[in-house]
Design brief:
The chain is about 25% helix and about 20% strand. The strands form five sheets. It has a five-stranded mixed β-sheet, sandwiched between helices. Strands 3-13-12 form a three-stranded antiparallel β-sheet, with helices on one face. A two-stranded antiparallel sheet has the order 1-2. A hairpin with a 5-residue loop joins β8 and β9.
Length: about 400
């Protein structure tokens, strides 16, 4: 027999065998635990509820299998704006220095201190937004046979609402992940600020490592230390007021800088884990090999191929107009560094509303309406790190 047939099993024989092995009286022997462990099975041995046909009729105890989920990329969320579909961003354009007339004064020649020199600005705009809706039907009487008390039914409803919230979190996460992937792909199409780490490392050391051989124990620690130095160098260059690592707009000499506290660095989780376990664990100084605001990313687009992406990006050309993207196929992407204003999203609407109660059917519907604006600003600084 088996405990999974709703029977009551005698377990003394198994207990004696397990105790004997645990105390060293006998050596390890094959153990059949199929009569001992209750496993969660989808096949039910008693009646279903009459509406969803998924919940069994009342049993001894109910476990609500749901826990809170917090979305990844939460740090990209920007201030919410409910009204309007356009967000404008005003940047200031540098003007050249002029000759100082103080030391070139000429008798009888006036100096006009009211010559007009207007500030030059560039206005860019984010337009449009993405919407979706989630829906659940809430039954008030049809599930009575599935629960033993009002408290148990309330626990079920609480779990359902938490599940609903978890779905929303993952929807936002997946769209945010796509926003990061678009930035990476746009940088690749523009050939703007792509750092080929292995190419640079091999050139500096005279080696010929590949993305596979660099992970070997004999090669990895030295490469990681070099990579940290390179990333720190890039981070410091981002703090300089320059036109580096950003999309140029013709006729608008936009000069930007990104302080370290405004920099974000996403690194592929498995690569970062190996860095921490194989290299950083041997480093004893707290301030050595540390990067500011680093967040691990499990994957860029698909969980089965974490370091790859295939994206047709939205991007702009040198005039600042929307450009036609082409499919970008990238592999060995291990990180992206960017200004906090370069990538973000704004939840413009997030509303949970219910329909009136249906007296005939004894149910009502819940709707979650969401409108989000996902943003990339390629005129802000950003760098893609590729292990090739």
């Amino acid at each position: 027999m088996s405990v999974n047939t709703m029977g009551i099993e005698q377990a003394y024989t198994l207990i004696a065998a397990l105790h004997s092995m645990a105390t060293g009286n006998t050596s390890i022997t094959p153990t059949d635990e199929s009569d001992f462990i209750s496993v969660a099975q989808a096949t039910l041995v008693n009646g279903y509820d009459p509406v969803m046909n998924a919940i069994s009729q009342v049993l001894g105890r109910t476990l609500i299998a749901v826990r809170p989920y917090r979305r990844k990329f939460g740090g990209l969320e920007m201030t919410a704006e409910r009204w309007g579909a356009v967000i404008r961003k005003i940047s200031f354009i540098d003007t050249p220095a002029e000759a100082n007339p103080t030391f070139t004064l000429v008798d009888g020649s006036p100096i006009d201190q009211y010559v007009v020199k207007k500030p030059q600005v560039l206005e860019t705009r984010y337009v449009g937004s993405d919407v979706w809706m989630g829906q659940y039907t809430i039954f008030t009487r049809q599930l009575d046979v599935a629960f033993s008390s009002a408290a148990e039914f309330a626990s079920f409803m609480s779990g359902l609402m938490l599940h609903f919230a978890n779905e929303r979190e993952q929807w936002l996460e997946n769209m945010s992940r796509a926003t990061v992937a678009n930035f990476i792909a746009a940088k690749n199409q523009l050939n703007n600020s792509i750092v080929h780490l292995l190419t640079e490392y091999n050139a500096a050391t005279g080696l010929s490592l590949t993305s596979t051989t660099v992970r070997q124990p004999a090669n990895f620690p030295a490469f990681v230390r070099w990579m940290y130095a390179r990333v720190e160098e890039l981070s410091k260059k981002m703090t300089e007021r320059s036109a580096l690592f950003q999309q140029a707009i013709t006729g608008a000499d936009i000069i930007r800088h990104t302080p370290v506290e405004d920099q974000k660095i996403y690194i592929l989780a498995d690569f970062l884990a190996h860095m921490e376990a194989e290299v950083l664990s041997d480093t004893y100084h707290d301030n050595y090999l540390k990067l500011a605001d680093v967040e691990a990313v499990g994957f860029w687009q698909a969980i089965d191929t974490p370091d790859s992406l295939t994206v047709t990006p939205a991007l702009i050309d040198a005039s600042g107009a929307i450009d036609t993207g082409t499919s970008q196929v990238m592999t060995d992407v291990i990180g992206v560094m960017f200004d906090r204003d370069a990538i973000g999203y704004n939840v413009a609407q997030d509303e949970l509303v219910s329909s009136p109660y249906n007296a005939a059917g004894q149910y009502y519907n819940l709707f979650n309406h969401v409108r989000v604006q996902y943003q990339n600003d390629l005129t802000e600084k950003g760098i893609v790190l590729v292990l090739d």
